[in-house]
Structure to design on (382 residues):
């Protein structure tokens, strides 16, 4: 029994390592290898349950079924965290996309300095040139579009 | 009054139609440059902002406060002449006079970022539970202690162009406050804090982030992986 807990502890250490290096090609490959191994073991467990039971006894688990269950629990946790991280990553990309759209459609204040902003926006080189150019050139158009959107919404 | 045309206020807005116009108009009396980031509000906040003379950037969908701040800062730092940046809450909690005082220090002292704190001096006006939780956060965070910051989750921050250019918030939700603290220590920004007053109005109390959200923040922060840029 104790050995089994030690194994799980080892897997947790693996998970932490995985969290640290998430998103690199190495971990992506590692996940695939792990998955392949899992499939092979599953096939072995189906074909030769006696071997699994032997292995289970060796590591101190009662039956082969229990060993499979433990492996499943670990795999499930692993998969959950992997999914969570993937979602976070997607969320970030989605945020960047939405941000790009938002900045493209930025509205300067309509009255007083809208024109001044447009004129001065071109002088200074900045990181996000596309946005500035757009703001300078298309200000009037964008404002009009935004108004249309507001009406239709 | 000193010329504040090199200052940009970044105001993340989410469903604040009731108060946003007044808050922005009040701030516009002092600061000519304000960008409101409407984070996909459904209550006409955007229309309220359009009446004020502030710049408006609209997220097409709701992303979260962290994302809104990042968008606002990206917009502001691309404007010509922008040197100083302020993150300012939309619900009227923050005082313009506090911002002015912080800006004065930022211009005079060798610091990159000044964070507002509720915990210098008298803090008895802060609701008790909030006080206990916020102080616990500080007590258990070695990073905050090292930076000598007493209030990690204060929305009022004033910073210079260097910080604005390097700012890169990836936690879209409320975890951004801790992430900014991380960035302060990782990128070596010189930081100090300034006593600010938070007006706990009935409105802001109802709107403010609930303490249970602290669980979400902790989780996001714990599972945050090194972001690839």
């Amino acid at each position: 029994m104790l050995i089994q807990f030690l194994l799980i502890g080892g897997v947790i250490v693996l998970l932490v390592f995985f969290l640290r290096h998430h998103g690199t090609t190495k971990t992506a490959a590692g996940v695939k290898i792990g998955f392949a191994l899992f499939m092979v073991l599953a096939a072995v467990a189906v074909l030769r349950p006696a071997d699994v039971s032997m292995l289970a006894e060796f590591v101190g688990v009662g039956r082969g079924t229990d060993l499979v269950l433990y492996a499943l629990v670990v795999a499930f946790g692993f998969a959950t965290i992997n999914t969570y991280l993937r979602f976070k990553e997607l969320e970030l990309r989605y945020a960047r996309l939405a941000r790009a759209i938002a900045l493209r459609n930025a509205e300067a204040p309509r009255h007083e300095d809208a024109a001044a902003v447009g004129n001065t926006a071109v002088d200074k080189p900045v990181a996000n040139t596309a946005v500035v150019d757009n703001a300078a050139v298309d200000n009037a158009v964008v404002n009009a579009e935004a108004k249309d959107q507001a009406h239709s919404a | 009054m000193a010329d504040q045309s090199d200052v940009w206020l970044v105001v993340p807005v989410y469903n604040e139609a009731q108060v946003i116009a007044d808050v922005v108009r009040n701030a516009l009396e002092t600061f000519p440059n304000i960008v409101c980031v409407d984070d996909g509000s459904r209550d006409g906040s955007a229309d309220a902002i359009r009446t004020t003379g502030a710049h408006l950037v609209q997220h097409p969908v709701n992303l979260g406060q962290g994302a809104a701040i990042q968008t606002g800062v990206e917009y502001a730092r691309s404007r010509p002449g922008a040197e100083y940046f302020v993150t300012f809450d939309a619900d009227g909690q923050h005082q313009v006079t506090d911002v002015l005082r912080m800006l004065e220090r930022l211009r005079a002292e060798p610091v990159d970022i000044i964070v507002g704190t509720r915990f210098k001096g008298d803090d008895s006006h802060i609701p008790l539970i909030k006080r206990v939780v916020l102080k616990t956060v500080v007590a258990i965070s070695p990073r905050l202690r090292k930076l000598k910051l007493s209030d990690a989750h204060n929305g009022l921050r004033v910073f210079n162009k260097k910080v604005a250019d390097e700012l890169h918030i990836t936690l879209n939700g409320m975890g951004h406050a801790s992430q900014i603290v991380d960035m302060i220590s990782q990128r070596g920004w010189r930081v100090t804090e300034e006593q600010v007053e938070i007006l706990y109005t009935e409105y802001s109390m109802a709107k403010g982030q609930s303490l249970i959200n602290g669980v979400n923040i902790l989780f996001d922060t714990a599972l945050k992986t090194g972001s690839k840029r």
In short: The mean pLDDT of chain B is 84. Chain B has ten helices and seven strands. The two ends of chain B are 41 Å apart (CA to CA). Strands of chain B lie at 7-13, 34-38, 55-58, 84-87, 113-117, 157-160, 191-195.
